[in-house]
Structures are given as structure tokens and as C-alpha cells.
Amino acid sequence: MEKPAFETDCCAVNVVLGEEKKGHLIPNGNGHQAGVNGSLIGGTDGAGCGATPGTMSSVEKPVPGYPEREQWTRQMDFIMSCVGFAVGLGNVWRFPYLCYKNGGGVFLIPYLIIGVVGGIPIFFLEIALGQFMKAGSINVWNIAPLFKGLGYASMVIVFFCNTYYIMVLAWAFYYFIKSFNATLPWSTCDNPWNTPSCIEIFHHEDCLNGTIGNTTYGNMTCEELADGRSPIIEFWENKVLNISQGLDYPGSINWELLLCLAAVWVMVYFCVWKGVKSTGKIVYFTATFPYVVLIILLVRGVTLPGAYDGIMFYIKPDWSKLGEAQVWIDAGTQIFFSYAIGLGALTALGSYNRFNNDCYKDAFMLALINSGTSFFAGFVVFAILGFMANEQGVDISQVAETGPGLAFIAYPKAVTLMPMPPVWAALFFFMLLVLGLDSQFVGVEGFVTGILDLFPGKYYMRYKREISVAICCLMCFIIDLSMVTQVSHYRLTGMYVFQLFDYYSASGMTLLWQAFWECIVVSWVYGADRFMDDIARMIGYRPFPWMKWCWSFITPCVCMGIFLFHLFNYKPLTYNNTYVYPWWGEVIGWCMALMSMLCIPVSVLYKLCRATGTFKERWEKLTKPQWGPHHLEYMAPDTDIKSLASLSASTEDNKVIIFESGM
């Protein structure tokens, strides 16, 4: 429905728009251009100034079928999606291990400090930036077009993450299926994949009471018992992974694992294919169910013998650790990993918010949920590890694991010692699958949103989203085939490829590099005060100045400090501290890391070289924001004309485009 347009002000604005231009009107996330009421009013030659007051000389209506940018049905959809994405496997299997390793409860001090000065400011920046620009991880950097390489860098990182992270879900799904057996396959040594060294019960306590070389248990001496292998480890390495001799031994496909991988990708596809309208509903289950299971496991865990010792081992403070640099580095790395910073997915999720959503409060609430989940999961994990150590008669440090070792070795061993092992195994691995599933499909959503933002409305077609999601999933699936490949004698090389992706493509260095430049561009190129004003326009008040200080000074220093520490203390990748990757494997790894890191400087240099004029003129031209049409709708009345005067059309025929406004 048409409304009367500006009268006298319209002429002034129209003239300005036809002259020197300071900015550009660009299509928003889905390529459509719409005013307050979703309609577009334009004049081709400024004739509107001489037309009858209250009318425009010509009207351009949006092409039928062009989609409006989606929004969350409820604000809680956004909250649950962020919780589902940020709260993932790292909260359950990485934080508890780092906490016990770095001084127990003392680790919370550097963790909270770096969270306040590094994690929360960037977490808030990414969500606010997406909400303000109404765009995904690439077009959001139209706020400073020269640095659009930041968007491409985040797309590379999240693509790599989507590719290898889903392997953990495939493993969890495989274990979940195997849990539906009366006898768990990893609890016995009478399976085809077991070796003569497999021992179900080690009886270390019996050996400790005798002479190591002479004492026997059954047909084995204590020396042989010490070299024995658990059926859990043999199931993981020989059946699930079938670890090969090295990275350079590829072969046939592990069909069981391939089917699990395909099934998980199908789940991800149908969670994402319809956009945030469907994703926002699914996360209500995927984000909350893990908490239900964690509570059940905690109740069960604290009733087991040895649980108290495990929990005290987890939280007992060791104050001497505060003086070690590695403790602070581990805290910073964990913050950036668990908050999912630098991947662009938070930006994509924020872009579907209402323009006036209070993302400032959301950021603090989500950070609290994320860190609280990590700490809470530690009690669950160490209660069960304490029980496991008590049953085996060993110290807790000998059973404490991190990463896949905790999920697929330590916990499967623990459930074999409980009553009704299949029930607890199925419950745990289903939780693991759900916990990672929402992180996976939100990551895919962030990648697809960034891709679709690159195509303006004139490229609109039905089922564009569905096809894009299918192509993305298929590409990742094809790459994943390298992680489920076998060699002769049914051995697998995929774990080496998986670790290569994990160590380099989305490592701490790539995320820290990304976060550093995000702060620099927003605070020093666009302007921290300017962005604070933009946030105030959205939420109705200015955030505490601490955020501005962090973006400008503290957070970049924290990011670069941890980045340099990682760089100077770099160690070549190994598997289980035994297999050293070949030189060409390291080259592939560094290429994956540099594919994202070089996007930023290369794109800056390319755009500067392509532009004309002096360096100052090029810089000024390339750092002027390209505003989206929604900014006109929410422009403050007292700055309306001033801001409109800095906008111009960026269409092929250089038409002047003016949007209706009710202000």
C-alpha cells in the first residue's frame, strides 16, 4: 500500500542523491529492497520534485515472489539457536579436562577474566553487527567494504568446521546403534577385531602386591598385563577407526561408518533446508535435551562409589598454576572455541533478529549459559571418572581424558561398570549426537546464509535455499569420504585426516586472527563510538563504555598475544604422541589455515590496487559503508535527512531510489 512520500524534503534528498554520493543502497540479505511497508518507490530523473505533492513520478513494485528476509518467529528461537550452536561438545569434553589440568577451581579465574575482556565483547559484537546490517557473514562487512575479506575468511573457517566436525556425530551415531545390544561390543575380548593382547580385567592391584616379573594372573604375567589393551580401546581403534600405518595409506570405504555419516548429513539437511522458521523450532529439542541427560547422569554419577573423589579432583584449587602462562593461554583458547567466535554463524543468527531486539542483554545471558554449562558438565564427567578410577584401583589422573578419548574411551568404559550398561550407553551417545547436531546445522545455516546474501534479488528462484543447502551438504560429504577410507587388512586412514582438519583449519590461531581483525575494523576503521551509536539506535540505550574499550584496545591485545604464543610455541602435529605426520601433511595443514587467514590481507591489497586516485582517496572510498534499505526505516528523525543525504543507489542504470518513510 502506497503512502504519501516526502514533499519538500523529497526534492532536497533527490538532488543530493543525484550528486556526489557518500554511500550505497544495497540489497539486504535476500537481495530484495523494501521500505517500511515492503514497497519500493523510485524516480528515474528527479521528476518527482515537480510532481503533485504527496506523490512520486514513478513507482517500482517488488517483483512478485521475492522473499522478505526471514525473522525469528519468537525471540526465544534466537536464544535457543545460539545456545545450541555455542554449547557443544567442547563444553562437555574439553573444559572439564582443562580445568583439572590447570589447577582445578583456580582455572576459573583466568577463564572468567578472559571471558570478560575477550569472549563476551566479540560475542556481542558479532551478534550486534549481524542484527544491525541484516546480513550474513560476508555482506555484514559492507560496514567497511575494504575489509570484506573478513567475511570470506569466516566462510572458509566454518566450511572446514562443517566438514570435519560432523565426523564426531557419525562416530556418536555409530556407538548409539551399537548400544542396542544385550552385551556392549566394547566390553568383551571375543570379537573379530580384538587382538591377543586384549584384556577385559587388568587386576593391577594384584600385581602391586606381588613381584612384577613373577606374579601371574591366569595365563599372563604382570609384565604382559601391563602391555595389555582394553577392549574399549581396541573397539575404538580397530573397529571404529581401524587406525592405519599413516596418512599416506588410503584405500576402500568403511561402509558402516559411511552409512552413519550419510544418515547424519540427512538429519542436518532437513534441519536447515527451510531456514530459520524450521531451525528455530528444532533447537528447542536439540538445545534442551542434553541438559536433561546431563542432570540424569549427574544424579546417577554422584551415587556411585568414588564420585566424591572425582569431583574434588576436578575443583580442588592449585594456586601455583596462576603463575603459568599456559594456564592463561588454555583459558583464552577455550573461551574462543566454546563461544564459537569468528565463524560467522553468530552474525547470521543475529541477522534474523528484529532490528530493535536487545542483543546486549542476550549476549550476556548466552555467555553465562555457555560458561555455566561447561562448569556444570565438569561435575558430571568427573563424578563418573572418579567411579571409574575407584573400580580400577588407579589414580583419577590415569583415566582423565579430553576430546574423543573422553567420549569414546573413558565413558564407554565407565558404563560397562554400571548396572544396565546398554541403557546408559544409549542415553549418553544420544546426548552426544544431539549436542553436536545443533552446532552442526547452525554452522551450515551460517554458511548458507552467507552464500545466499551474495545473490541479489534478480537471481531469485524457487527452492534456492533448498538447493543451496543440498549442494553445501553434498560438498562436505564428498570431502568427508577421506575420513572414512580404509587400506588393506581393513585398516583406516580417516582419523589422520580428521586430526589434520581439527589441528589446522579451525585452530586457535585462525579464530584468534579473525577475532583480532574484527575488533580492529569495527573500532578503528568504522569507529567504536559510531558503532555504539548504531547499537543505541537499535536497543534504545548505549551499552556500558567497557565494550568500546575492549573492542579498541583490550580484546585485540588479548587475541594477538595468544595468537603469537601459539605461533612461537608451534609443535608439529602427531597422533597419540607416536605417529609424526609427513612433511607434506603439514604443508596441507598450513594451506588450510592460510586459506582463511590470507583472505583478509589479500582482499585489502586487491581492492586498493583496483581503485583509482591517491591512497587517501582510495581508502576513503573503500571504507564508506554500504547501507541496506532497512537502515532508512529505523533512522532517527533528527538525523533522517542528514543520513539520507549520504545514501545513493548502486543499481546498474544508476537509478535514484528513495524509500517510503513514516517518519
TrEMBL record:
<feature type="transmembrane region" description="Helical">
    <location>
        <begin position="510"/>
        <end position="528"/>
    </location>
</feature>
<keyword id="KW-1133">Transmembrane helix</keyword>
<feature type="binding site">
    <location>
        <position position="87"/>
    </location>
    <ligand>
        <name>Na(+)</name>
    </ligand>
</feature>
<feature type="binding site">
    <location>
        <position position="86"/>
    </location>
    <ligand>
        <name>Na(+)</name>
    </ligand>
</feature>
<dbReference type="InterPro" id="IPR037272">
    <property type="entry name" value="SNS_sf"/>
</dbReference>
<keyword id="KW-0472">Membrane</keyword>
<feature type="binding site">
    <location>
        <position position="439"/>
    </location>
    <ligand>
        <name>Na(+)</name>
    </ligand>
</feature>
<feature type="binding site">
    <location>
        <position position="435"/>
    </location>
    <ligand>
        <name>Na(+)</name>
    </ligand>
</feature>
<feature type="disulfide bond">
    <location>
        <begin position="189"/>
        <end position="198"/>
    </location>
</feature>
<keyword id="KW-0813">Transport</keyword>
<feature type="transmembrane region" description="Helical">
    <location>
        <begin position="587"/>
        <end position="609"/>
    </location>
</feature>
<feature type="transmembrane region" description="Helical">
    <location>
        <begin position="328"/>
        <end position="352"/>
    </location>
</feature>
<feature type="transmembrane region" description="Helical">
    <location>
        <begin position="549"/>
        <end position="567"/>
    </location>
</feature>
<feature type="binding site">
    <location>
        <position position="84"/>
    </location>
    <ligand>
        <name>Na(+)</name>
    </ligand>
</feature>
<feature type="transmembrane region" description="Helical">
    <location>
        <begin position="150"/>
        <end position="177"/>
    </location>
</feature>
<feature type="transmembrane region" description="Helical">
    <location>
        <begin position="253"/>
        <end position="272"/>
    </location>
</feature>
<feature type="binding site">
    <location>
        <position position="438"/>
    </location>
    <ligand>
        <name>Na(+)</name>
    </ligand>
</feature>
<dbReference type="GO" id="GO:0005886">
    <property type="term" value="C:plasma membrane"/>
</dbReference>
<feature type="binding site">
    <location>
        <position position="91"/>
    </location>
    <ligand>
        <name>Na(+)</name>
    </ligand>
</feature>
<dbReference type="Pfam" id="PF00209">
    <property type="entry name" value="SNF"/>
</dbReference>
<dbReference type="GO" id="GO:0005332">
    <property type="term" value="F:gamma-aminobutyric acid:sodium:chloride symporter activity"/>
</dbReference>
<feature type="transmembrane region" description="Helical">
    <location>
        <begin position="108"/>
        <end position="129"/>
    </location>
</feature>
<keyword id="KW-0812">Transmembrane</keyword>
<feature type="transmembrane region" description="Helical">
    <location>
        <begin position="467"/>
        <end position="490"/>
    </location>
</feature>
<keyword id="KW-1015">Disulfide bond</keyword>
<protein>
    <recommendedName>
        <fullName>Transporter</fullName>
    </recommendedName>
</protein>
<keyword id="KW-0915">Sodium</keyword>
<comment type="similarity">
    <text>Belongs to the sodium:neurotransmitter symporter (SNF) (TC 2.A.22) family.</text>
</comment>
<feature type="transmembrane region" description="Helical">
    <location>
        <begin position="284"/>
        <end position="308"/>
    </location>
</feature>
<feature type="transmembrane region" description="Helical">
    <location>
        <begin position="78"/>
        <end position="96"/>
    </location>
</feature>
<keyword id="KW-0479">Metal-binding</keyword>
<feature type="transmembrane region" description="Helical">
    <location>
        <begin position="364"/>
        <end position="389"/>
    </location>
</feature>
<feature type="binding site">
    <location>
        <position position="338"/>
    </location>
    <ligand>
        <name>Na(+)</name>
    </ligand>
</feature>
<dbReference type="GO" id="GO:0046872">
    <property type="term" value="F:metal ion binding"/>
</dbReference>
<feature type="transmembrane region" description="Helical">
    <location>
        <begin position="423"/>
        <end position="455"/>
    </location>
</feature>
<keyword id="KW-0769">Symport</keyword>
<feature type="binding site">
    <location>
        <position position="370"/>
    </location>
    <ligand>
        <name>Na(+)</name>
    </ligand>
</feature>
<dbReference type="InterPro" id="IPR000175">
    <property type="entry name" value="Na/ntran_symport"/>
</dbReference>
